[in-house]
Amino acid sequence: MKLSYKLINIMQEIKKYIEFNRLIIFPVLTLILYEVCYWYFKLYSNEIFNSTQQQSLHFNILSTNAILAGFLFTGLSIIVSTSNNKIIKILSEWGHLDLIHTSISRGIFLNLGSIVVSFIAMINSSKKIQIFLVNIELLLLILGVCYFFMSILDLKFIINKIREYDLEKDKKDIEVYGIVDDD
User: Fold this and answer.
1) Which of 148, 140, 146, 147 has the alpha carbon at shortest distance from 115?
2) Residue-by-residue pLDDT tens, the chain, 183 positions
3) How far is it, in rounded angstroms, from Cα 183 to Cα 179?
4) What are the TM regions of this chain, as residue ranges (predicted)?
5) Domain coordinates in residue numbering, the chain
6) 0.85 cut: is pTM over it?
7) Cα–Cα distance measured from residue 119 to residue 74, given in angstroms and rounded to the nearest whole number
8) 114 with 140: CB under 8 angstroms?
9) Which region holds residue 126: left if phi is over 0, alpha if psi is between -120 and 50, else beta?
């Protein structure tokens, strides 16, 4: 076997591995990037913790998390509403819907966790605990955004599969029944 074929096979195996384990790989990479930024740039200096900036930071994080959680719930309802479609049943048998439900569920959980930590941080007055809570809050927000992006890509995949299936079905109907749309 030629070297180029071996390289292509290795690349395809790596791609399959990444696609199968993406729910773990991308959040771990996000955590590593977060930690590198935290220690290299010292993102969370004590200057950020005066009372007005602190309250607006918590409010902004709280609002962002609530919006992202709402979008994730909407994505979940889109999947539920299309569950009668034949292609969705096929994707479910292949295990694609389990991955999508997992990414949406984790995103919702992380966003709600960040909301709870934000409420706790608004109530607490200790500076050391505030710094810790803000780090947890931002980390949960970043991971929630990571799962949000993965769920958006999953929803795009599902919608494309539904459209492809519907187009193929329409073509077959036209061929079999001679159906012509007069619009």
Assistant:
1) 140
2) 576 667 667 777 777 777 767 777 778 887 788 777 776 666 555 555 555 666 677 788 888 888 988 998 888 888 888 777 777 777 778 777 888 888 888 889 999 999 898 888 888 777 778 778 888 888 888 888 888 988 888 888 888 888 887 777 766 666 666 655 554
3) 12
4) 20-41, 61-82, 103-123, 129-153
5) 47-174
6) no
7) 24
8) yes
9) beta
State both tokens at 78.
Answer: 């889109």
HSE (side-chain half, CA atoms, 13 Å) at 37: 12
For residue 51, the Cα-to-chain-centroid distance in whole angstroms is: 32
Question: What would the 3-class secondary structure string for the chain be?
Answer: CCHHHHHHHHHHHHHHHHHHCHHHHHHHHHHHHHHHHHHHHCCCCHHHHCHHHHHHHHHHHHHHHHHHHHHHHHHHHHHHHCCCCHHHHHHHHHCHHHHHHHHHHHHHHHHHHHHHHHHHHHHCCCHHHHHHHHHHHHHHHHHHHHHHHHHHHHHHHHHHHHHHHHHHHHHHHHHHHCCCCCC
